[in-house]
Amino acid sequence: MQVCVIGTGYVGLVTGVCLAQIGHQVICVDNDAQKVKLMQSGQSPIFEPGLAQMMAANMEAGRLEFTADLRVGVERGEILFIAVGTPALPSGASDTRYVEAVARGIGQHLNGGYKVIVNKSTVPIGSGDWVRRIVLDGVAEGNSEHTNFDVVSNPEFLREGSAIYDTFNPDRIVIGSSSERAIDLMQQLYAPIVTRQFAQYPDLPPVPVLVTDLTSAETIKYAANAFLATKISFINEVSNICDRVGADVTLVAQGIGLDTRIGHKFLQAGIGWGGSCFPKDVSALVHTATDYGYDAQLLKSTIETNRQQRLIAVEKLQQVLKILKGKTIGLLGLTFKPDTDDLRDAPALDLIDRLTHLGAKVKAFDPLISSARSHPDLTKITLTTNAEDLAMGCDALVLITEWQEFQLLDYTHLASLMERPTIVDGRNYLDAVALTNAGFDYIGIGRPRVD
Ligand code: NAD
């Protein structure tokens, strides 16, 4: 099938590359000319495991192209994916201006033939009908007569860091539309994934496809992220209770996770959730609820608990070091999760802000972040390129991101380089006993200290 993906970020580029990999003819459009140039030369503008190689192979096979010209993409595509960003506005509502610009542009360039316009971006509930109207406005502006299209909501559930695996092995595919023709085309598009032709575990039953109306599909995306964020805020709240009563949250999580109604996933206590989706999506759902006269108190608490949790490492540092002014704190990791270079709304940024406000010197080492150009807040800190340089002269380390390589560090050596070998394990990721034996004062989240 002829596919056009508009917006080549973490979602759009992975979608485009994976659809090419399963045999479709894909053209990806981005309005960032520099990014397009980079991709045309065979390089990926983002880090995602396996992406660069798969991208190169599909370009080589002639199934994947890149352009900055929306007209070319719209004319060629039978299925047009909108995959641009929908960041949060200060009010918490979703900023839909990029989606609006793309929908208008699609309308202006619509040519003959039936098209399916797919909202892959996470858009506020009710956007499906709004996109239809904006496309029609664009059609009128473009003096065209082509209005042979339907709008579909096809929310994306991939996780950065395992985006390719998730695309080929999804838990479900949601298709929201009132048009049978559009639903049928979407099912054809995803057939190789549904039948697990490209899956890691081909013997599993077909991927469930849930066909819904537009509004329900849009709500599914927000409800899924709000539920996951709430589950993490829940265990973080339990961890704070554990800290006070002397229980170990990792054992508590194990104990409740064995209940199949609860399950083990998303029960790792730590310094809170972040990234480009959970914060903005939970806020947007609260905002939508308010717009429709409902006070979403549980979700507001999910957000507030997380806001406080992000600073829990500072409290723990203050308990040990007392005054932080003039102390040097080293951050192991910066990104909101491992295997990504995405720093959007990462808890590390709040921590940097608080620690520098308190007068601490902050250093950081992250395997994928080597330049302060990655985020303006990084100009306030010193970036190092290895754990030894990070530890040198530090009063304490804080583990922020569960990069696998952090489990393999020589902590005895790191302890010898520090002023005072203290580590706050912000993800309960390291071996508390081993770290203590290496000479560290190990402080976990919601866990008693090792004797
Ligand atoms: P991103 O910021 O990484 O990428 C957006 C891309 O769109 C950028 O390359 C930008 O240059 C391009 N763009 C902006 N305006 C454009 C225009 N007018 N024409 C063409 N290109 C344009 O965003 P992302 O993280 O890929 O997220 C995209 C959407 O998917 C968001 O709605 C997000 O909520 C949703 N989503 C993201 C994830 C994730 O893990 N990142 C997961 C599920 C859903």
TrEMBL record:
Q: In which pathway does it act?
A: Nucleotide-sugar biosynthesis; UDP-alpha-D-glucuronate biosynthesis; UDP-alpha-D-glucuronate from UDP-alpha-D-glucose: step 1/1
Offer one example of a GO biological process linked to this entry. Answer: polysaccharide biosynthetic process
Binding residues for substrate: F157, L158, R159, E160, K221, F266, L267, Q268, A269, G270, G274, K337
Which positions bind NAD(+)? D30, K35, T86, T122, E160, K280, R344
Q: What is this protein called?
A: UDP-glucose 6-dehydrogenase
Query: Per the UniProt record, which EC number(s) apply here?
Result: 1.1.1.22
Keywords from the named record = NAD, Oxidoreductase
> Which InterPro entries does this UniProt record tie to the protein?
6-PGluconate_DH-like_C_sf, NAD(P)-bd_dom_sf, UDP-Glc/GDP-Man, UDP-Glc/GDP-Man_DH_C, UDP-Glc/GDP-Man_DH_C_sf, UDP-Glc/GDP-Man_DH_dimer, UDP-Glc/GDP-Man_DH_N, UDPglc_DH_bac
The record's comment on protein family reads: Belongs to the UDP-glucose/GDP-mannose dehydrogenase family.
Q: What GO terms are given for molecular function? A: NAD binding; UDP-glucose 6-dehydrogenase activity
Looking at the record's lineage, which domain of life comes first?
Bacteria
Tell me the organism: Chamaesiphon minutus (strain ATCC 27169 / PCC 6605)
Q: Catalytic residues?
A: C277 (nucleophile)
Q: What class of enzyme is it?
A: oxidoreductase
Q: Which catalytic reaction applies to this protein?
A: UDP-alpha-D-glucose + 2 NAD(+) + H2O = UDP-alpha-D-glucuronate + 2 NADH + 3 H(+)
Q: Could you tell me which SMART domains the record lists for this protein?
A: UDPG_MGDP_dh_C (SM00984)
Among PANTHER family, the record links this protein to: UDP-GLUCOSE 6-DEHYDROGENASE TUAD (PTHR43750:SF3)
UDP-glucose/GDP-mannose dehydrogenase C-terminal domain residues: 330-432
